[in-house]
Structures are given as structure tokens and as C-alpha cells.
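Write out this protein's structure.
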Amino acid sequence: MIKDKKIAIIGLGYVGLPLAIEFGKKYLVVGFDINEARVKELSKGIDSTKEADMIAMNEAIMYYNVGKEKGLCFSCDTEDLSDCNIFIVTVPTPIDQFKAPDLNPLIKASEMLGKKLKKEDIVIYESTVYPGCTEEDCVPILEKFSGLKFNIDFFCGYSPERINPGDKVNTLTKIKKVTSGSTPEIATVVDDLYASIITAGTHKAPSLKVAEASKAIENAQRDVNISFVNELALIFERMGIDTTDVIEAAGTKWNFLKYRPGLVGGHCIGVDPYYLAHKAESLGYYPQVILSGRRVNDMMGMFVANKVVKLLINKGHKINQAKALILGITFKEDCPDIRNSKVIDIYKELVQFGMNVDVYDPHAGKHEVKDEYGIDLVDGLSSKYDAIILAVSHKEFLTLDYNQLSNGENAVLFDTKSFLDRSIVDARL
């Protein structure tokens, strides 16, 4: 349908940047972001998310600059979108303080694109949403600001992102991609487009809603499974038995799934189930399993903090003004992504107990953590602590001297990830 493709990627975060780089190897691509500092950073060949293939990115920039028929440029100027004919939206879709979907970034992106749309253009959404969001929320905005008619003058697609931040094995091109289009013909165009860069192959869903729903249930399923083992951890703690030991024993059966207890944060698993629940509730159904799983997972930070306080009391510590160290603030290991980190729940609970809490993370950006959570990360580890909580399993934490960090033999070491040698920890999830 579109012979000379020029693609605009809207949003240059963990999802958009890898996508822009891969498409830049075969097509002309404009990587667009409203964050001017981010655009300047990328234009200089720097990526603070550490997700980019820097060699491929710089090669794509070079191709664009020498006027080839492929390549990548970065921009925060909407005028640079004027001659693009395929727009791929990868902006964040968070939740608000009431756990309701926050579509503001998606709405603003749709308004901006509506002003740029031309006949025959295609807008593909990758942002995680509830089923029906593309057609019910985004399309009316595109029509309003463009003056064009959906499926007559312009078209839409939906292809849910499957980026796994920090994973250098299961990268963009190695993960099968779900695709869809607003008409059968457009579905084929969208599928062919992604198939040109995804070596793992594609799966063409029968509708936009099916593709949207597939993304929502991917993460809701994982969330529910983790909530089950988190609930087991709460039960087994009262029984005085180790959850990891139980899982290892049960895992000897061939069909047992060895999920581990832990903090469930991040941009997907801790957020997407609320999108699905929101849509269900709008249709008059109150989801039981999905939301009960969310409640269990959301309380784990408080559980860890209270367990640490109990351990300190049992060892004769005064809680008020006791010193605690939390190791890690990112939502997962060996990754700088701090979005929706549940480590903050441990921090807040310990502070409420009157403890002095330091947070150390060699991967997280100091300014980003301060802006997002109001926490000043410590630059190094030179103090001694009454309690140490390993919250994120960064590889650097394996080589720390915990005896040097502990304030005497009665210090408490709690391992939320079952990451450290169990002989040195007082308790673990």
C-alpha cells in the first residue's frame, strides 16, 4: 500500500529506541521525543537506558546523514514528522494514584499526530492499553485533529511491545511480535512491516482488540502466578519454613511452575493488570482473581519491612534511629529502570518506623531517583548498618563484604531475592 515508507517512532524510551534503531537499518526513520534532553543525548550517541545497540544506532545515524534510503535521526520538532507516513507510538501508559489508567501521554501523542496525518497514513500503537482503547479513545482524537476519516483516509494498527529491559538475550528482533490492523489489508501491511525486522517471526491477530487483549493478559497471568507464591511466602513465614525450600521440593514434579516470591514492580506486570481490570469494571464485571493478585503483590514491600523490624527487635535492637541499608532501587536486576519500583514501599515503611535508611544502587540514575522518589542515593558504602535489605539482585551485590557493612553480630541481613548464600542471611522471601 505504501511504497516509500518513512517511519516516525513517537517516544524514545525502553521500547521506542530499540525499535527506531532496527527500522533505521532498512527504512528512513525519525525518532521523536518531547524530551529535548533525551534527543540531545541520543544525537550524541549516548543512551542512559542502556538498551540501545550503540554501534547499530550510530551506523543508522550515519546512513541518514549521508542521504541514503535508510537511516535514523532524532528530533523533538514536530515539523520533522510532516513527511512521515507510518507513525509508531511507544509512549508510556502508567497508572495514577488511584490505580486507574493514565492515558494522558497517549492522548497527547494522538493529538500531535492528528495534526500531521495525511491520506493513506498509518498510525500503529505499541503502548500497553486495555482492549478497545485504540479504536475508542485514540481514533476519535486522530479524526478530530486531522479532519480525516478512519479506515477511509487513514488507518491504524496495534502491535504490543514485548521489550524486556536489561535482557541482552531476548532482544527486540528475537521475540515473536503480535501485529494487527484496522482492516484486513492494513493488517497485512503492518505484519509485513514488522516481519521485515523481527527474525523470530510475527503473529497476525484477527483484530486490534485481540492484539490489545493479548498484551494485557500476558502480564496479568504472570502477576497472578507471582501473587500465588507471594501468598505462600506470607503463609510459610508464619509456619517457620523457607518458601524457596518448598518451591525447590515441589519443583521436582515435571509440571510445577517454579515462580519465585518477590517485589512486583516495573512498567508492565505491576501496571497492566489494572488496565484490564478497568475495562472489565466499565463493562459491569469486577475481576476477582486479577485484583486479588494485585493486592497481594502490592503489600509485599510492607511485609518485608515489618519482617526486618521484627528481626531487629528479636535481636535486641532499638528501632527508632536504627540504621538500615537497602541494596537496589531499580525494579529489576542489572538494569537502570526505576519505573514503578516497589522497593520504595520498603523504604517508606522503614522510615515510618523511625529508622535512618540509606539506599545504594550502582545502576540507577541519582537525579532520576531524586526526581521520582525524593531519595538521595548514597554514592558508596562506608557506613555500618543494623539492617541490610537486598532488594534487587544486581550482580555487584554478590561480591560485597556484608561483615564489613554490618554493625556487629546482631545486625540483620534480609534477602528478598534468595540471591545470597543462605548461610549469611537471617531471612529471605
